[in-house]
Amino acid sequence: MDSFETSSQFRQILRTLLPQSPVVLKAVHFALRNCSSEDYLYYSIIDILDDVSVELNTKTTIFQFIDVLIRESFFISQQVNSAYNYPYVHNLKTALPKMMEKLLPQTNNVNLHCIYTNLKNISETLNVNYSDLNRQYKDLNSILSAEDIENVALNIPFPQVSFENISLESKDPVIQAWEILLHKRKESHYERLRLLKNLPPRDGVLTEDDMFAIRNPRTAELHKKNNDQLFTKKQIVARMEDERESQKRSRESLWVVSRPSGSSFVTEEEFLNYYWKRIGEITPDQKDDFMAALDDLNTLAKLSYKDNQF
Amino acid sequence: MPESKRPLSVPPVPQPNGTKAKDVPTIVQVSRPFMTHAELSHLHTLTIASNKKTTYNQQKHQIFQFLFQVSKSIKLPLRVLSLAMNYYQRYYLYYVFEDHGNNPTNDPLVEAENDSFLVATTCLFLASKNEDCIKKLKDVQAVCNRIRDLDGESRNFLKGGVSSSIPLADFQRKVIMNLEFKLLQVIKFDFTSGAGNVPSVDQLVVIFAKQLKLSYKLTFFAWLISFDIMSTPLLLTLPPHCIALAILIVTLNLQPTDIEAKYADEFSESAAIGATLDSIDSMKDFRCPETLVNEGIVYVLDYYIHQMNFLVLNEYMPPVNAEIGKAQIFKFMDLKSKFNDLSILSEQSVSTNALLKQDKYLRKWDTGVCVKGAARFIIGNKRRRFDAEYAILRPQ
């Protein structure tokens, strides 16, 4: 397969990318296998993110793919006798601020949380200190200035600034990406406060169609021209499904029990790691709830036996 | 106990004018998570033919091994395994084991419901959902079939000739869905599994042990017992906290010093062995009614006296106890003799066969009754809400 063929196949993979982790991982492995064509494949990623016809949902998934790609690239390059030399890492890292622009379109903040999660992972992999930025992202009380709050009260829309004009303080592309994200976070919070303050709440019954009618049909055409990516009902539902799926997967880490192979019965390792080390004494503030639950159980047991047992 | 609070089933009542009463279910089923041994064995005589008792018990052992292997492969925690084994035993309280006569049309789908491995798969699947460790049925099936060495080829599983060839997994899925509905009926749709917000036995043992400040070795010993006990019908008889406390009392009495624990040295054992037996106030500290704890103690000791050689605890103990110079089992027997006069569960209401037969709750479950909304399933402590309905059905 020559580089051209590889890249067209890769584009096809990216266009149909789904957020299920096996699918993403397969795409990542394809990219790593063909990292000799990195120059082609890297531009395929950038082109797809630039492409207006690609849905925003897919672009979000592609960012998830980038997250995994960087992590896997590190992983295979750090193996002993590895033939890999951190493929894609440098290119993707440099392009992060530009990607933000595509992933977080103007006037639309649906992606904020997904991008935040992935950017956190990327910063972790690249060993960038982002704790301060993370704190700023989380701290909603200090994100708006006094002037902003005044403007919210006056119902003034958040000033639209194109990304080139956001003053970036850092030279590091990862930190720059964080700064753009923080800017969008601020906008999102500002607009929400403005909405709560200035728009009267709607009473009465709201049909499902009304609820999803965020794309006003009259202005839809106009929006299209402005390349403004608002979701349709179908896209919103698809996104909900995807997120439910990834939520379920992330929950697995809460309960998975790894047992040493070979033994056909329970092992001391399981006891040590999942019971002895994890379970502590009941603290005084847990005690009331715990005792109440046991009392409930006793009532249940009492009713379950026919004879009066206790 | 007042009559109105006792969980029981109400037989269909003839409806004279049929208009108003039509809307209420004709059968009320209250979930009874715990039953006495007499009730359990009475139900077994109805569902397990006397010539199949040995087969049932041998197969149960095999099935529980199988469930453990599957749980290991899917990395499910023990609480799911425990609940699955509980469900499996409950299923055969109300449905006939190897019921080949009840399939006049020879439908392969009905016949396959006799496959106890599929029953076990269903139990594990429902337990994993109930314990919030959700796995797709497809994944569970794949692991089960791999462990059973079944290939997934398409064959004529269904009635109707060559054209109805479907993959094994699809066929199994249909059976499992049917079995799940049957299972839900006998657990009376009770998703608290009789435990509400209380953790499972294996966790409770460790929680209580930490509270009593037990050493690593003693806690490990108790935890191993909890694993052995998990597969017994004791979980259908006693609530988990009473079992956990019973196990700890047995542990403290035995004071095992010779358990083989690789990691015990990492934890500095304090000189004191922890709480002494006298200081345990079962009701005040652990909310465990004494009768139920006693029942648990006696059961645990009996179980080890009869089964010690087949249990996991045996793997972690030297065959001969150095202290008494005899096999480990004698320590259990010694202790049992000290506990001979404990007051245990009363079985007054079920002491004779006639009394057992009177109780309509203790019958084979007929899946026909719950079609078309004819049955209402409720949890024992929630039944007050339906008292009005109950009054209509049973005019005084």
From TrEMBL, chain A:
Pfam families: CTK3 (PF12243), CTK3_C (PF12350). InterPro entries: CID_dom, Ctk3, Ctk3_C, Ctk3_N. One of its GO terms (biological process) is positive regulation of DNA-templated transcription, elongation. One of its GO terms (cellular component) is CTDK-1 complex. This is CID domain-containing protein. Residues 2-160 form the CID domain.
Automatic annotation (TrEMBL), chain B:
It comes from Australozyma saopauloensis. Residues 65-185 form the Cyclin-like domain. Belongs to the cyclin family. Residues 1-22 are annotated as: Disordered. It holds the Pfam family Cyclin_N. PANTHER family: CYCLIN (PTHR10026). Keywords: Cyclin. GO terms for biological process: regulation of transcription by RNA polymerase II. This is Cyclin-like domain-containing protein.
